[in-house]
Amino acid sequence: MEQQNQAAVLQQMKEAADYIRSHYSEQPEIGLILGSGLGVIAELVEDVVTIPYENIPHFPVSTVEGHAGELLLGTVGGRRVLLMKGRFHQYEGYGVETVSFPVRVMKELGVEKLLVTNAAGGVNMEYEPGDLMVIRDHINFTFRNPLIGPNVNELGVRFPDMSEAYSRRLREVAKSVAEEQGLQLREGVYFGLLGPSYETPAEIRMIRTLGGDAVGMSTVSEVLLARHAGIEVLGFSCISNMAAGILDQPLSHEEVIETTERVKQTFLKLILGIIPRM
After folding, report:
1. Among the options 53, 70, 92, 199, which is catalytic?
2. Residue 36 known to be catalytic
3. Which of 42, 119, 214, 243 is catalytic?
4. Residue 58 among the catalytic residues
5. pLDDT band at 248 (very low <50, low <70, confident <90, very high)
6. Does the active-site annotation cover 241?
7. What is the pLDDT of residues 52-62, one digit of tens each?
8. Across residues 9-35, what is the average pLDDT?
């Protein structure tokens, strides 16, 4: 049974990758996964080939506002990239393996580095909406892991090391570029929850006590799978709102989109500066 499971995963990866290769013959070096409202980064891609998710074998389809549901292939800053304009979430009803399946496909296509972005609530009291945070580490409070079950030995070891889930080298690159651009770049811990409801004020106090600086509903499973596959990871959170209980106002997805729209040019400039150095 275990060998059949491994074989099925590898076969699905191969079929999805083969379909993508039939539309784009170059080998992408860098994968990008874009969060809510951050699909604007797609504007940077040159010589672009666009593939709707629903056309790719075994790919799920994004159902969330602000997630376009397209795979883009081309170049940014002279580097070949594969860009996911919209990601998948467990709160949409997808299993953790499905949410992170595109990362397996990236590995099959030869991607060696992954840049993930998300919109997140600010838990650290020093943060403000519109701040950009490079992710130093994460805390997985989804209590789910895409590596549970038979290990796919061709992709990685049974017990992958997570002591540097987010590459120290790439974080230093990001901080260097931000300094050159005169941009204040926060650095902190991303706290991953399932959603889709926003957190209660009591939960936010718990998250702060446990060491979280920002909170969101994505990213963690993708990073776990990437590190298992030996892909180097750089992550960013756009602080789109202050988390529950910090300000005397309700939370809304509209605020998330409005904030990411406001900071998009700053974020674009930062990413464009980083990719050639990854």
Report:
1. 92
2. yes
3. 119
4. no
5. low
6. yes
7. 999 999 998 76
8. 94
Question: 231 burial class (0-12, 13-18, 19+ CB within 10 angstroms)?
Answer: buried
The yes-or-no answer on residue 89 being catalytic is yes
Which whole-number Å values give the CA distances from 138 to 128, 132, 160, 164, 183, in the listed order? 20, 16, 15, 10, 23
- What is the tens place of the pLDDT at every residue in 192-223? 999 899 899 999 999 999 999 999 999 999 99
User: Is 218 known to be catalytic?
Assistant: yes
Query: Is 23 an active-site residue?
Result: no
Supply the mean pLDDT for the chain.
90
In the prediction, which pLDDT does 249 show? 65
**The predicted structure's pLDDT at residue 4:** 46
Domains and CATH numbers, the chain: 2-277 (3.40.50.1580)
- Please say if 5 is a catalytic residue: no
Residues 6 or more apart whose Cβ sits within 8 Å of residue 252: none
Residue 6 pLDDT: 73
206 is catalytic: no
